[in-house]
Amino acid sequence: MAAGGGDPAASPLKTPSWAVRIRGADGEIAGAGILLTPDQVLTCAHVVDRAEARLTAEFVGAADHSVPAVPARVDGTAYVPETLDADGDPSGDVALLRLERPRPVEETVRLHRLSAPGREVRMYGFPYTHNGGIWFRSTVVGGCGRDGQVQLSPVSPGELASPGCSGAGVADSRTGEVIGMVLSGQLDQHGNRFSFMSPAETIARHLPRLKPHIVGPTAVDERLLPTDDGPSPDLLDEPFAQRLAAWLRDDGSQVKISVVGPGDAARAATLRRAITLADRELRTAVSIDRASLDPPGTVPSAGGHDLAVDASGVTAAEIAERIAERMGLWQHPEDPPLDRIRASRATLNLVVVGVDEAIDPLPLLDLLEVLRAGGSRLLLVFRTAGDCHRLARDRLLTRPARERRARLVERLRDLTGPLAEDLRERLAAVVPHGIRPLDSELVAAHAALADLLRADDDGERDPAGDHDRDRDPDLDRDRYPHGGHDRGPGRAPAPAAGPALDLGRYERLADRVAGRLAAGVAELDRLRDRRDELAGRLRGYHVLHQHSLQGEEDPAVDDLYLRAHALLRARPCDVRAAEAAVDAYTRRVDDHGGGDAR
To answer: Angle, nearest 10°, between helix axes 471-479 and 238-248?
Structure first.
């Protein structure tokens, strides 16, 4: 059985007992639902609207293989219709139904809190063409909007959630836990297909009465929550809030390292505010409604992090266990959590506060290095800019950035060297009909390579580049709390940092140039193959024509042959012109009855 009760959702051969088909007064399928308690079904508010006043819940996965039908109604005020904010982002769309007759408790399932990035999931819905129920497979793409909803990408085009799937349970393919509820499916004007779900934490925020039926630890350690005796929530370090919100909205920086000193109440309050607002379960309607009243760029979207832990007085092993649990890495519990994390392809957006106050900071840095190498994003907060902070910057920012830049340099050298030479070789062989000139792309790649090599020669820029955009403001605030960059009487001011290289931009350039080079080389190869094919055809027809003449001459046909032969031997070869010339020659030979080489 799944941890939450009910049939394991991991079995693709079995209809889950918690899957509910909902019909309206007209007998038509209005949507799906999830049996959370013997007499309560979770579904979408718009399913209730579609079904109008009279609802019937049908249990297609009943143990006796019957399909019991039970009248249902909205459970009191447990109805949150979908609303749109000023930007058109949706919120809500959840409802709870009360059954007139309870179902067996073993048919129920509990929702599970689980970090979602990149997870493979399955949903069991009732589309009109499969109204007995069918599994749909998807991959979690990421959060969308400010409500904490999650975007899903269908594994195949036919697995887009369609009418009849709204309200369906979304089960994690690895653990079998039900982690959310389908909201809708969408086919946009560009032909892209997406489904959307509301995860357990967002459902808990809209319907707090369901929290007893949601299992799994919350995403934020209790010690990181605002307290009555803590810093005033009205305190706000606006620039720091903007940098935190940018990272939580995924500004492209994988690792961000900041310092929040013990006596800095404003920064401490700002950090707690960002962690709270970025959590799907803690963020409230008030915080969403007042977003426009807050300073610009300081309000992150819900779901900006998957886990926020306070490392103070905690071991690295305890933090690793917390991360493994949040990732759903329950298999092989006998293995150390770090080994499970290293072997897993799961990622998460992790906030760690008080890294330097952990019981064992160095093993904690080892854990963080494993997470970074696996693709997780890290927001790390230190209490002081001491040795642990410097070591973390070196291991998690400076070295990875230096290695990343070195890989990029080698790639650009390859693009501007061997791959460009391959292109030139093919351009010398055939005329590039229908191929976009790549001169400007190669010039851009050469310029990018020169920028990177010049940065290496300068040796002054921080290799972390854009990975740590608030380094100077944070460290200056910590080291020089009275403002400015003065180092004390008689000391020279701190040197200004040079502009950081945007490695992401250079990587995108390299991707674009590599793609176009590959496409250009492939098309030129196709033209070369066509040239060789035409040359073989010309030789075959020429042999047959000479045999049919039996020693006589045919100057007109010979001229056509010589023209086609010359065009095929020319470098670069104009394949289009050569093809026309070969066609003219072969037609003439066919007309004279001297060839049947096709």
So the answer is: 140
